[in-house]
């Protein structure tokens, strides 16, 4: 599996103007990697994920860039071709398990639906495979559960069912959008450990979208930090925490209370996330940046490599 | 030794689940016989996952929800033995900050009206004095007088929460219950609001009950922390003790479940993953409520509720297998 996203632009044409939700995003993933995209609300991370699967709905449109998956540009595929890819070669888990399962079909049926669409199994064998998948994700009494409806499942169980559905067709890439945000912390821990086990046994690459930097530290080898439609920093997880270069990344890491360290006052990033309709000129982060210079207000910073595999979009690192 | 501002004794809240027109199918044991104290100037963190009863506890402590039984004493006076008028007067000393910054503000009232309403309700100050007090409070919480005439929808989540905090503090309460005050806010804004709450506590000598499911946040804000599970308190300790040496199996799992935002430390940490889901607070299991998920549970645990006992300095645990 390989994924190259180049200069992706996804814009939303709303009555008040144009929201450039994703504005020139580029990144790569290799086989077996787990990559995180981290950022706050409105930064464009979910829209990036939806763009890869061409699930962006009106008034949103992908207006530029390339998404090359295993050598093929997904932006050039027909609807039929994308339907074969979705759920099959690329699968997605969504944030709120309560609303991503159809309430009027049993869980077993929904998992079987995915299998039926993408695998070459005779119809009679599909229900058995669905039960097997429920077992794989650790749901007790899987045969009984397969015949039940989503509303009797707890949040953790629903998310497991979603993971079962997404892995049932052996995708090369699994996109997980805030997979544990709606779950309690001890259930989150279960799901995290499950995802770690499964990515080893299924060999899937995972693109993890989240606002929780702790999750990224646990699960991902690489991470991209997004702010207002752009990737501002991209590095291995270790490098990002050891040597955060972009002032936003530094601010973000410093402002999070750590579960095992005590401080008197938390560092803060002053101001608020910019207005999506009218972002600041030049570097979108400049109004909140402690190190902003004149050029930051006027021009878009280009992406520079600061060490092997570690890039930043900031005038502090050249071109100023 | 600081005196106790808040004393909670054998507090209980049960909800009846009705079926049909006349039947009752079960009782939700939301809060079951809990005790705790909060000293003046202290922050007690109340932590637990969804359904543990922490919000219900907070609502009872502020006078917003009557308990099924038990006592809540504020500065020695039992909140619920008072009549409604007396209770309303006492609760000017107790205020609440809510989780949803927009949901807790009437969208058709201006900021000035919202923050000033408590003064109006309790007939404190005339119109001009009210306006002054409100403007001073807006300034204190990091907003400005020019926000006075604006409406909640014009503000960001963090600012809206500041409005909620201003409204909670306008009556000069001594005790503030904060229920998940930053959970709905973006990560970079949380730090601002947490710092604000800490600063206000020092300036105004406030006592906090800080309710949250987020362990990192509760660690940062609290002096002592109480852990709830299915309506019971399972452990209470000073912050460092709770995180350095949690005694109850549930607390241990909780503390170890939190993702650490540092890949090196995350790798070093060994997790204890609990099996199963949280049991239902409707007709909870007999004995220790945690026994269905506890790696240490034995026959005795399944049939006997453990009492909360002291195992160290200010460290209490409810577990048969500890101490």
Question: How does this model look, in words?
Answer:
Chain A is an alpha/beta fold. Chain A has helices spanning 45-52, 79-85, 97-100, 107-118, 126-136, 142-146, 155-167, 185-202, 213-219, 237-242, 247-255, 294-298; strands at 3-14, 17-29, 34-38, 60-69, 72-73, 90-93, 173-177, 205-210, 222-227, 230-236, 303-307, 310-313. In chain A, helix 5 (126-136) crosses helix 7 (155-167) and helix 7 (155-167) packs parallel to helix 8 (185-202). Chain B has 323 residues and is an alpha/beta fold. Chain B contains 11 helices and 12 strands. The radius of gyration of chain B is 21 Å and the shape is globular. The mean pLDDT of chain B is 90. The chains are: A alpha/beta (320), B alpha/beta (323). Chain A binds chain B through residues 40-41, 154, 156-157, 184-190, 192-193, 211-218, 237-238, 241, 251-253, 255-260, 262-263, 265-270, 272-273, and chain B through 49-50, 156, 158-159, 186-192, 194-195, 198, 213, 215-217, 219-220, 239-240, 243, 253-266, 271, 273-275, 277-278.
Write the layout of secondary structure elements.
The complex is a heterodimer of chains A (320) and B (323).
Chain A: E1 3-14, E2 17-29, E3 34-38, H1 45-52, E4 60-69, E5 72-73, H2 79-85, E6 90-93, H3 97-100, H4 107-118, H5 126-136, H6 142-146, H7 155-167, E7 173-177, H8 185-202, E8 205-210, H9 213-219, E9 222-227, E10 230-236, H10 237-242, H11 247-255, H12 294-298, E11 303-307, E12 310-313
Parallel strand pairs in A: 3-8, 3-9, 6-7, 7-8
Antiparallel strand pairs in A: 1-2, 1-4, 4-5, 9-10, 10-12, 11-12
Helix pairs in contact in A: 4-5, 4-7, 5-7, 7-8
Chain B: E1 4-19, E2 23-39, E3 43-47, H1 54-61, E4 69-74, E5 77-78, H2 84-90, E6 94-97, H3 111-121, H4 127-140, H5 157-169, E7 175-179, H6 187-204, E8 207-212, H7 215-221, E9 224-229, E10 232-238, H8 239-244, H9 249-257, H10 263-268, H11 299-303, E11 309-312, E12 315-317
Parallel strand pairs in B: 3-8, 3-9, 6-7, 7-8
Antiparallel strand pairs in B: 1-2, 1-4, 4-5, 9-10, 10-12, 11-12
Helix pairs in contact in B: 3-4, 3-5, 4-5, 5-6
């Amino acid at each position: 599996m390989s994924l190259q996203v180049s200069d992706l632009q996804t814009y939303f044409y709303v009555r008040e103007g144009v929201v450039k939700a994703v504005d020139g995003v580029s990144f790569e993933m290799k086989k077996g990697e787990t990559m995180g995209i981290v950022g706050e609300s409105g930064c464009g991370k979910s829209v990036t994920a939806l763009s890869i699967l061409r699930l962006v709905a009106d008034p949103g449109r992908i207006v530029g860039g390339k998404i090359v998956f295993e050598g093929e540009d997904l932006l050039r595929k027909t609807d039929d071709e994308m339907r074969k890819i979705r759920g099959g070669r690329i699968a997605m888990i969504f944030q709120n398990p309560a609303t991503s399962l159809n309430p009027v079909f049993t869980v077993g049926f929904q998992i079987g639906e995915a299998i039926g669409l993408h695998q070459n199994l005779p119809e009679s064998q599909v229900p058995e495979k669905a039960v097997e998948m429920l077992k794989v994700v650790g749901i007790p009494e899987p045969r009984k559960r397969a015949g039940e409806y989503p509303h009797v499942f707890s949040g953790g169980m629903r998310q497991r069912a979603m993971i079962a559905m997404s892995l049932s067709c052996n995708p090369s890439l699994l996109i997980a959008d805030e997979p544990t945000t709606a779950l309690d912390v001890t259930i989150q821990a279960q799901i995290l450990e499950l995802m770690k086990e499964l990515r080893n046994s299924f060999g899937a690459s995972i693109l993890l979208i989240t606002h929780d930097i702790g999750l990224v530290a646990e699960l991902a080898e690489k991470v991209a930090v997004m702010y207002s439609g752009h990737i501002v920093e991209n590095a291995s997880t270790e490098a990002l925490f050891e040597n955060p270069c972009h002032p936003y990344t530094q601010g973000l890491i410093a402002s999070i209370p750590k579960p095992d360290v005590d401080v008197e006052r938390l560092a803060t990033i002053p101001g608020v996330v910019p207005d999506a309709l009218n972002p600041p000129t030049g570097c979108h982060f400049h109004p909140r940046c402690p190190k902003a210079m004149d050029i930051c207000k006027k021009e878009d910073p280009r992406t520079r490599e600061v060490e092997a595999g570690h890039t930043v979009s900031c005038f502090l690192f050249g071109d100023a | 030794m600081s005196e106790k501002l808040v004393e909670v004794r054998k507090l209980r809240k049960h909800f009846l689940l009705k079926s049909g027109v006349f039947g009752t199918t079960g009782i939700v044991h939301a809060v079951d016989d809990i005790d705790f104290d909060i000293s003046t100037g202290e922050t007690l963190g109340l932590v637990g996952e969804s359904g543990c009863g922490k919000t219900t506890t907070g609502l009872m402590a502020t006078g917003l929800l009557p308990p099924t039984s038990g006592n809540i004493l504020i500065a020695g006076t039992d909140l619920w033995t008072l009549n409604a008028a007396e209770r309303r007067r006492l609760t000017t000393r107790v205020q609440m900050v809510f989780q949803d910054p927009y949901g807790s503000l009437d969208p058709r009232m201006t900021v000035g009206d919202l923050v000033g309403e408590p003064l109006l309700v309790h007939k404190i100050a005339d119109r001009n004095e009210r306006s002054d007090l409100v403007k001073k409070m807006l300034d204190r919480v990091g907003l400005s007088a020019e926000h006075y005439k604006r409406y909640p929808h014009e503000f960001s989540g963090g600012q809206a929460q500041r409005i909620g905090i201003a409204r909670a503090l306008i009556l000069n309460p001594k005790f503030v219950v904060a229920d998940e005050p930053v959970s709905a806010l973006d990560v970079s804004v949380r730090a601002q609001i947490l710092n604000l709450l800490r600063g206000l506590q020092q300036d105004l000598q406030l006592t906090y009950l800080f309710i949250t499911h987020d362990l990192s946040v509760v660690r940062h804000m609290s002096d002592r922390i109480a852990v709830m599970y299915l309506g019971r308190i399972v452990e209470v300790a000073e912050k460092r003790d709770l995180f350095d040496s949690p005694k109850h199996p549930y607390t241990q799992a909780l503390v170890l479940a939190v993702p650490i935002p540092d890949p090196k430390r995350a790798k070093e940490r060994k997790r204890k993953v609990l099996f199963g889901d949280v049991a239902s607070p409707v007709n909870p299991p007999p004995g220790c409520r945690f026994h269905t998920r506890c790696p240490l549970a034995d026959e005795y645990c399944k049939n006997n509720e453990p009492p909360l006992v002291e195992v160290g300095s200010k460290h209490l645990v409810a577990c048969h297998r500890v101490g």
